[in-house]
Amino acid sequence: MRLSESELERYNRQILIKGWGVKGQKKLKRSKVMVVGVGGLGSVSSLYLAAAGIGKLVLIDKDKVSLSDLNRQILYSEEDLGLLKVDVAKRKIESLNSEVNVEAVIGEITKGNVRDLIEDVDVVVDGLDNWSTRFILNECCVEKSIPFVHAGVSEFYGQITTVMPGRGPCLRCIFPEKPRELKVIPIFGAIPGVLASLQVVEVIKMITGIGRLLVGRMLLLDGEGMTCEETEIKRNPNCPICGSLNRSDRTF
């Protein structure tokens, strides 16, 4: 695989980063990343993943753009109201970076389709707003040894961790019981933007092999108090999802 002259120019600033180089950029071009949910988190993460040069993006969402989305879902505008999010996202991302292959999947993750949908994906990014679907993804990612970058947001608060099956805890280790769901989550729009950007940092580091991942750690953001804390999280040896899993040192 080679990088075109336009790609070398487009990605020049990040290629200059120590440890990144052309080799790292080629790894990104070979990678396939899935963003599940193209809302507050996913609309930002998908943009930055495309801008960084991920070779293929798979976007999954079933919803249409509504006016109440526009305080945080910056991929969309008033002219997109009533249109399917994945269709709008695909068009706008391809207009940002025509080198990226974007696949739009209209629908939602279920126990029945999850294995087929993530079959050949390198990384899954959590853009969801409900725990039932998160747990379905978590279980399948663990089963298939696919990294899963989780983030969750509410009001001025957010959290992020990276699930690397066999190396650190999965979501079920951290949340043995499903957290309480809200029908409508109150949210300040910049908070998912911050957390989604951090998700992209994790994905890019993972693929290029740069830095330390949030494996066995959760980063907690309090935007109201403007503090950021890290807490250690450990695997549960009795976890029904990953408890019996051996260590996996997945490389890209």
Q: What attributes characterize this protein structure?
A:
globular, 9 helices, 252 residues, eight-stranded mixed β-sheet, 19% strand, alpha/beta, Rossmann fold
Please explain how this structure is put together.
The chain is globular. It has helices at residues 5-10, 12-15, 21-30, 42-52, 85-96, 114-117, 131-144, 171-174, 190-208; strands at 32-36, 56-61, 101-106, 123-126, 148-154, 157-163, 217-222, 227-232. The protein is 33% helix and 19% strand. The longest helix has 19 residues, at 190-208. With 252 residues, it is an alpha/beta fold. It has a single domain (31-232), classed as NAD(P)-binding Rossmann-like Domain (Rossmann fold).
What is the strand and helix layout of this fold?
Elements (H helix, E strand, L loop, with lengths): L4 H6 L1 H4 L5 H10 L1 E5 L5 H11 L3 E6 L23 H12 L4 E6 L7 H4 L5 E4 L4 H14 L3 E7 L2 E7 L7 H4 L15 H19 L8 E6 L4 E6 L20
Parallel strand pairs: 1-2, 1-4, 2-3, 4-5
Antiparallel strand pairs: 5-6, 6-7, 7-8
User: Rg from C-alpha positions?
Assistant: 17 Å
CATH superfamily: NAD(P)-binding Rossmann-like Domain
Tally of contiguous helical segments: 9
For the record, what CATH class applies?
A: Alpha Beta
CATH fold description: Rossmann fold
Helix content: 25-40%
Beta-strand fraction estimate? 15-25%
CATH second-level architecture: 3-Layer(aba) Sandwich
Structural class, by secondary structure, is alpha/beta
- Count of discrete domains: 1
Number of strands: 8
Q: Specify the oligomeric state.
A: single chain
Q: End-to-end distance, in Å? A: 14 Å
Low-pLDDT segments, ≥5 res: none
- Overall geometry comes to globular
Largest beta-sheet characterization: 8 strands, mixed
Lateral arrangement of strands in the main beta sheet: 3-2-1-4-5-6-7-8
Instruction: Compute the average pLDDT.
Output: 96
Strand and helix order: HHHEHEHEHEHEEHHEE
